[in-house]
Predict the structure.
Amino acid sequence: MNGFDLERDRTEELLASLRRRASFDLNCPPQELNFTMLAVHDDAGPDMPKQVGVVGCRKRATYTMEYLVSRSGGWGWGHSYVNETGWRLDAAGVQDLE
């Protein structure tokens, strides 16, 4: 997506939740929203969406997903787990494109 190689299934889940959130924030039907991947999180495992631009109904907004990486197994080698904190609307908020 937009030149990024993303983990497919989890990305689809994250973008579905963003579609619901952005539809509310932009007061726009979900099917009218378009996404542009702006940045990815690639610190632990497959790339995941980190910053996404959303445009629809003559409005646009930027959303950021923060990730928390936790490790099991104590010190040294262990498994890494990546947990999302949820989509956050950029400080600029929703902007009209008129």
About this structure: The longest strand covers residues 59-71. The first helix runs from residue 8 to 26. Residues 3 and 37 are 8 Å apart (CA to CA). Helices lie at 8-26.
